[in-house]
Specification:
- With about 120 residues, the protein is mostly helical.
- It has two domains: about 30 residues, no CATH class; about 90 residues, no CATH class.
- The protein starts with a helix and ends in a 5-residue tail after the last helix.
- The relative contact order is 0.10.
């Protein structure tokens, strides 16, 4: 029939416990939450990316280690991807948006990074 035994038994169990509706409404895509960092770490990374938009994922990871936040460069990248901040241009756009919404005072690093947006 082209279906593995494991899949067949899972489908049979779904039909037995919840009927045909359980089989139809069964989503194959379930998020793997155990691999995500906690919300507090994610907020620290997002704050850091606004403060230093020019830093890459490795430097961000290293600088956060000095603040006792331990996250790998790939973990930083995953957070950036979830929040649509994966490249320098998008991080600059997020900084501009934050400035226009909150009226924050920019640091020298942020001003220098925003001046680079003209080249994009």
């Amino acid at each position: 029939m082209g279906v593995s035994r494991d899949t067949l038994y899972r489908y049979q169990e779904l039909v037995k416990t919840g009927g045909i509706d359980a089989l139809i409404n069964h989503s194959l895509i379930t998020p793997n939450m155990k691999n995500r960092v906690d919300n507090e770490t994610e907020q620290v990374v997002l704050k850091y990316v606004i403060d230093f938009p020019a830093h890459g994922q490795a430097r961000t990871s290293n600088e956060l280690r000095t603040l006792e936040v331990f996250i790998s460069p790939s973990g930083v990248r995953s957070i950036w991807l979830r929040n649509d901040l994966e490249n320098f241009k998008k991080r600059l756009i997020a900084l501009e948006k934050k400035v226009s919404e909150n009226g924050i005072i920019l640091t020298d690093d942020q001003v220098a990074a925003l001046q680079l947006i003209k080249f994009f």
